[in-house]
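User: Last request for today: this protein with 1-O-alpha-D-glucopyranosyl-D-fructose, please.
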Amino acid sequence: MNQTWWKESVVYQIYPRSFMDSNGDGIGDIKGITSRMDYLKELGIDVIWLSPVFKSPNDDNGYDISDYQKIMDDFGTMEDFDEMLDAAHQRGIKLMMDLVVNHSSDEHQWFIESKSSKDNEKRDWYIWKPGKDGKEPSNWEAAFKGSVWEYDEGTDEYYLHLFSKKQPDLNWENPRLRKEIYKMMNWWLEKGIDGFRMDVINFISKDTDYPDGKVAEGKKYGDGSPYFMNGPRIHEFLQEMNKEVLSKYDTITVGEAPGVTPEEAKLYTGSDRNELHMVFQFEHMGLGDGPEGKWSNLSWKLTDLKKVMTRWQKGLEEDGWNSLYWNNHDQPRVVSRFGNDKEYRVESAKMLATCLHMMQGTPYIYQGEEIGMTNVQFDSIDQYRDIETLNAFKELTSENRMSEEEMMASIYARGRDNARTPMQWNAEEHGGFTEGTPWIEVNPNYKEINVEKALGDQESIFYYYQKLIKLRKENKAIVYGNYDLLLEDDEQIYAYTRTLGEEKLLIICNFTKDSTLFTLPSGIEYNSSELLISNYAIGEGTSIDSIEMKPFEARVYKLN
Ligand code: TEU
Ligand code: CA
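Assistant: Here's the final one, the structure of the complex with 1-O-alpha-D-glucopyranosyl-D-fructose:
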């Protein structure tokens, strides 16, 4: 296994709008990030993944870029950016930027020209089609509801947008467009950044016939995903990107790939593929999805979570590499999603962190996860900001597919704004995030849950994450050891081993608020055991043959 820094790193994701506001306008900014660089150093992370800070009208909070080489006014200036990059590098922290090139903003100069006329030289930098029988060219549904095709009166054609109509898809079939993207990527790498997280990168190659998708019961639009996920030329494009850009620098890359399987992930991340280092898969995040996607908010089973995680651990064990995450700016807070954000918030947050960070792959920590921030429950839909949530609320309630109460309950459980309420720094007003009025309200529990309180409590979730990160640095078995699941049918305990040569680790996690007996499966040979980390105080010399696991208890043993 070729040992490389990006396999041995821990990444911290910053959603700049909600991280730290330095000028009192209620919006997080780059100077605010720089002011918190020592905090990140203290946590011990190696890389920052910075969600987009580029010029944008913020239809999708920066995932709709109108200039790839300019900083959004809300966030500051390019000088602020250079200062932040330098502050990170001075502390040995690398910076991974968010590359959003499946689509741009409709306010990007390229699109303005492309839309201006059918024979504009940039017309085919985007995907334009005439209508079919007076309707959209195909029946696909957009991620933010409605058709993926928006009609343009001026040129009597439709353009494709898999997300909002202000996010027109770029046409990757066009070599001139691809060349322009590579030029922009090189420009950022020449500035000294250390890599990219690539937004829905497995969507950039489409089936250019745009065939209709299957229409589910009661739905108006069809499922186009078989025709835009992992498309026909995706590996050709990524190998070209690697040749033209990535191979020239010592980068870290991760491709966000909704719908990817472990088998396909080997093609994206295999060491001889010359494409990407790793991908973000979504199978564990989709547990509980139903006919209305995540808004169905069905219950999930631990055995299903174990199946999914094991498929990915084993699938990429020989070649390829896993990313490891529970949270990001699109997902609910893991302590609310898979843990217990009430009486066992601290124990379950630590247990979930243990379960993930002891696996094989590069762990990603989302801002606030390290202090156990929870989901939020705003009283009114008017307090929410996320386009995906607002569009879904409008469509599902207006079409009586869900009641307002059902929709609010689903937003509480699965909405993206759960991750976007401001970082809670202290118990002052607005959690110390801003001295102004925050662009979205702070979670009301900021007085109990905040960084200042965590730093003053040796038993806090923060210091537990710090220990996990340190453990990874000290134990090659955590990075490179093989994973083997134990007790696969147990609905309470998630247990597995990691093996690297003679070294063997045993990880035991109780995912429930009920105590439960762990019995070491036969066949696990050992002479002695050394406790590496646990979220409860454990008496010396306790046997590991059978353990009464407390609510949400986690333990990691080194077996000798
Ligand atoms: O998300 C891709 C994506 O699939 C999202 O629709 C996400 O899975 C979904 O919102 C979860 O419910 C990326 C970015 O992470 C997201 O913030 C952007 O809105 C989207 O692409 C478009 O750029
Ligand atoms: Ca600000």
